[in-house]
Structures are given as C-alpha cells and as structure tokens.
Amino acid sequence: MPESYRPHLRKDDEHPRTTSQSVSSNTTVSHATVQDVLDKKDGRIITIHPEQTLHDAVVLLRDNRIGALLCVDEEGKLAGILSERDIVRKLADQPGKTLPHRVEEVMTRTVETCTADEPLVVVLRLMTEGRFRHMPVVDGDALIGMITIGDVVHFRLNQLELEALQIKQLIVG
User: Where is region (Disordered) located (predicted)?
Assistant: First the structure.
C-alpha cells in the first residue's frame, strides 16, 4: 500500500456543519465606544465662560434642559465644569446670595475627560466610581462633546431592545 493511502471512514460521509450562532456570538458584550453615543446626540455643546454669573448658568441649564455646563476660556479650551450639584452646594452655603457669583467661583476645575474612542464600559465605570454624571469628550485640547449617565443608559437600553428583537425574530423565524 502506498503511504498516502487512508481507508474510507464514516466521518468522510458527514457534511460540514454550519452554525449561524454560537455561544460566543450570543454572549459577547458589545464593544461600544463613546463615539457611538455621540453619534446619537445632536452635536451641540453648551458652554459658559468662567466670568459669567451663576444666574446666566441657571438660565442656560433651564433653557437647554441639561444638568451641567462646560466652562471654556476665551480660546474655547476646557476650564472646568459647572453642574446643578455645584450650584446647590453654593445655595446651601449662601442662601439668597448665590446667583450674582461668578461661575469660576463655583465650577469644578479638575475635570475628568474621555476620548471618543474609549470603550463605553470604561467611561461608565469612571463616572460611577467618581460619582459624577457628566463627562466632557476631548480630542487633544479640542472639546468635541459631552456624555452623561443618561446618554449611556439610553444607548444601552436601545441596544437591549434591538437584541431582544433579534432574539424574537430568531425564535419566530
């Protein structure tokens, strides 16, 4: 017999198996990034200058129905962030005398930022551990957006709804 001869085996008659789904495809966590969330937003960045008053800030917060403002200098670079929480703290310290104060007196100067290509799960963890709800998104020194805990939750709920629909279609056929 030649060395290359191999007898016919039962497995030679089996057709290769194909699967449309696997355990890994059904359990792999989405690798969503901050950019995925930004893509769903309108792209507006609401800012305020540190020299403006808290009255200006609360008007902007109210009119835009948001919870924080990014504070930028004359060149548009991030100088801080002013949240509703910051204003409430000042109100508690100086009731009735808060609105004339300048934003720079109340804003948070050390701001945690992220980039658009960062994984959403990492940013969410930072926000949760740091106990803040708003995070500016930067590209180098340029401010390109802001994401909130609400944005992330909304994005994830949409993902879950889509996954449920896909599973339902798989079951129904």
Answer: 1-29
pLDDT, one tens digit per residue, over 105-159 is 999 999 999 999 999 989 999 999 999 999 999 999 899 999 999 999 889 888 8
Could you read off the pLDDT of 21-49 as tens digits, one per residue?
544 444 444 588 999 999 989 889 999 99
Task: Give the C-alpha separation, 43 to 99, whole Å.
Answer: 29
CA–CA distance, 65 with 3 (Å, rounded to integer): 79
Show which of 92, 111, 130 is a domain's final residue: 111
Which residue in the block uniquely carries the two structure tokens 């106990």? 131
> What number of CA atoms fall less than 13 Å from residue 62's CA on the CB side?
7
CATH code at 118? 3.10.580.10
Do 84 and 122 belong together in one domain?
A: no
**CA 139, CA 147: separation in Å to the nearest integer?**
14
What is the tally of structural domains in the chain? Answer: 2
